[in-house]
Amino acid sequence: MFHRSFHPAIWIVALSALLLGSTARDASGQAAENRFANPGFEMGQDGWYLAKAEGTKADFRVDDAEAAEGRHSVKIAIGQVKEWGAQFGQGIKAGEKGKTYTFAVLAKSTGGPVRADLQIERRAKPHERAARTDPYTLAKDKWTEMHVTFTVEKDFPQGWFAYINCAQPNCEFRADMFRLYEGAYVPYEKQAQEDAAAEGVRLFDTNKSSPSPLSGGEIAKREGWTAIPEDTTAHEFKGDVVFANRKIAVVLRKKGTGAELYSSGRSGWTRRALLAPPSDPPTVLSTISISENNPGEVAVKALDNKGTGLRVSLKIGQMFVETAPLGQTQGLRMEAPCRFAVLPDFFADDIVLDAQELPVSQVEVPGDNFLLHLLGGGEAIAMAVSNTREKDFRALLAGEKEGRQILASDIHYGKDGKVWVALLDEPAIWHMRNIAKEDKNKVIQLDWAMPFPAQWRVDWRRDNDLTDSWEMIAELPDGKFLKHGWFGGASTIPADRKKWTSVLGRFEYPCWVDKSGRGRLQPLKEALTFVGPAVLYPINRVKETPLDRLTVVDIIRETLGVGPCEYILDVQSQQLTYKGRATCGVRDTLNPIYEKKQQKQKKAEIEKALQDVVIFVTYIRGRIEEYVTWGHDMLKYLDGQKKTHPELAEVIAEMEGLTRDIDAKYAEKKDKIKTPAYVADLCNKFRAEVMDYEGADALERCKKITAAFVEVGGNQDHLVGDCRVAAKRLRQRAGLAMAKDPRVSEIAKEIRKRTTEIMRNPASYEAPRY
User: Is 314 within 8 Å of 339 (Cβ atoms)?
Assistant: First the structure.
């Protein structure tokens, strides 16, 4: 690590600190904005770019082999160099004319000395420079902070490209913690110490036990409390135990039944949740001991008179606590009353539990690592993350009609298990709007404005009680819309919001954020009927997401770690696959060639298109056959379960019906999708009768065969999309069946496991995300 002289606690840096980097503070003590996104590479290489002069050989890689701070840094390798060499950096918002800024980066060589400098230039021609350092010499055994402080002398409306420049051939170096902020230079080491002190965790003895939960004002004022000195672990508490950082406070009252969690928001400190071992009636965790006590982490053990309880810890800057079981504790009960609980699904559609639609006292739902309780009227989310899937979640319910709530959820620990509970506290962090049948195709302006840019997910309720999950698109200044990709990148949707997928055909995208940031919905006119509560929340961050705002995926990444997070979300297998060239693309390549009578000059291009179309059709047909075989295997499994569990025949029959949708769709289109051999024969016919033909009807002959290609391709595209929809519906229905009847649990889990397997590595035409 970089800060060798620091207290060990300061090694523990929360996501917010890692993302923001340490920067100077303004007059109010608030950290100045760092204009770099992902400055410490904790989110991988998102946002970063390597520019190379023509003929220069260079690349970069983000890894965890070494870092100045946090877990990751970037390694830049340069081989052959031409002209100005390589520039590694990021496009950022330009500073304001007349103001003073500092650009600083930590860097070191991985071998011999490396000469490099920092530069900032206009992102468009002319590439005028706003700032530049003299060259630095980077050594192998020392992180050097390159830096420059400058005053902006002119406006840069196109923004800046801020970067490390190196024109030394055959060298390699690392960089970390990019900072660009308003103000004078403050060394990273000094600022990191100040940040750690400001964001650190403190432990208190209230000196008087409270019979009821503390108010937000008591948490804020801390009157009469005693701060427990750092590293003291043998303190005997006279009152209640409180430990807090800037974002979360944890209270363990002597007469309490668990750890009470408070979040710090715009309205001050607010009690959001109670964490305790599942017990009816609850037991008092009256014995408290300190495990850790320093600014980096405070951890305590709380036990009842039988030695059962929890270990609860809070680290610097974090907006979540980590819990682990003690004694015979098997799980964690998160008491956070709400109407809606959401189980985010990163393969298909979420499961949304609505307390008003669940008449039973408790339900079991799939334990897929993540669970959200949507609190209050939209101002907070309590999120539980588990590192095990051994058992299902159990939700406990009570109340009548509009007052009915999910009171708590039980999460199983499992072997060596941990459960983290995060509090996202922000006005409008989630929102609900009831959709009526009469709203179909109507534009609805929500009483909700996006509190910060992110990938916001809308969970629509359908007329068959299933959920359809969509990501909102964002209106651009020119009237078009930006659709953020799930794994980086983005696409543009035209101003009329019209889009095409193999499943829905052509439709108007139904959920978006307008130019003013206000949310709008337009339930689909055809194909799907939305009715009931539509719920939205921030599922993932985008490049524009403020660095101090977190989304669901951020919490998963920070609690489980980047590697386990990528594994659980199965990121690699969710990337769209594409082989060959789509039939419509082949048509649009070949028809113009014959229209312009260029077939002799472009013979190689024609041959490549014919080869590509066979590859494409063969690939999509193979994917269809995978679904069909999978469906037959699923039916065999369900038939066996029906014989073993005759008491579950009704629900199993429903699962069979959903599975048979694949065969039904296949039978409907079997004659229309033909076979890859049929398309290969068409290609051979094209080669024999069209390839070199220059007669007056050459274009007509070409169009006849390309139209046959498109007919096959179009039907295949629709069919593979229909197969995926059938698997998605089966997956979600199985999860909901558990909520209605716990006896279905094992069957439902097996169904969901199998649907995950078939939905991995989707073809692009499956339309896995609308």
Answer: no
Q: What are phi and psi of 671, to 5 degrees?
A: -70, -30
Integer Cα distance of 245 and 264 in angstroms = 9
C-alpha angle 587-588-594 in degrees, rounded to nearest 5: 80
d(CA 46, CA 542): 9
C-beta separation of 116 from 168 below 8 A: yes
What letter does residue 393 receive in the DSSP assignment? Answer: E
Q: What letter represents residue 371's amino acid?
A: L
pLDDT tens digits along 129-163: 999 999 999 999 899 999 999 999 999 999 999 99
Taking the C-alpha atoms of residue 497 and residue 512, their distance in angstroms, rounded to an integer, is 9
Cβ(1)–Cβ(108) below 8 Å = no
Structure tokens at 555: 């919490």
| Backbone φ and ψ of 538, nearest 5° | -85, 110
- Write the single-letter amino acid at 757: E
3-state secondary structure 685-741: HHHHHCCCCCCCCHHHHHHHHHHHHHHHHHHHHHHHHHHHHHHHHHHHHHHHHHHHC
List of long-range contacts for 609-613, beta carbons under 8 Å, 24+ apart = 609/581, 610/586, 610/683, 610/686, 610/687, 611/580, 611/683, 612/580, 612/581, 612/586, 613/580, 613/581, 613/583, 613/586, 613/679, 613/683, 613/709, 613/713
Q: What pTM, to 2 d.p., does this model score?
A: 0.75
Q: How far apart, in whole angstroms, are the C-alpha atoms of residue 39 and residue 20?
A: 7
- How wide is the angle at C-alpha 460 spanned by C-alphas 459 and 463, nearest 5°? 145
Q: What's the pLDDT tens digit per position in 76-108?
A: 999 999 999 999 999 998 999 999 999 999 999
Instruction: Provide the 3-class DSSP secondary structure of residue 360.
Output: coil
Predicted confidence (pLDDT) per residue in 159-176, tens digit: 999 999 999 999 999 999
Q: Measuring CA to CA, which residue among 280, 284, 376, 372 is closest to residue 334?
A: 372
Output the six-digit token pair for 523.
């339930």
The helix/strand/coil state of 504 is: coil
The closest of 237, 250, 248 to 206, measured between CA atoms, is 237
Q: Which residues are CB-neighbours of 59 under 8 A, at least 6 positions away?
A: 50, 76, 77
Q: Give every CB contact of residue 236 below 8 A, 6+ residues apart in sequence.
A: none
By residue count, the chain amounts to 770
Residues 6+ apart with CB under 8 A from 379: 265, 267, 425, 426, 427, 428, 429
Judge contact between 412 and 388, C-beta under 8 A: yes
Task: Find the largest Cα–Cα distance for the chain.
Answer: 100
Q: What angle do CA 380, 382, 386 make, to 5 degrees?
A: 155
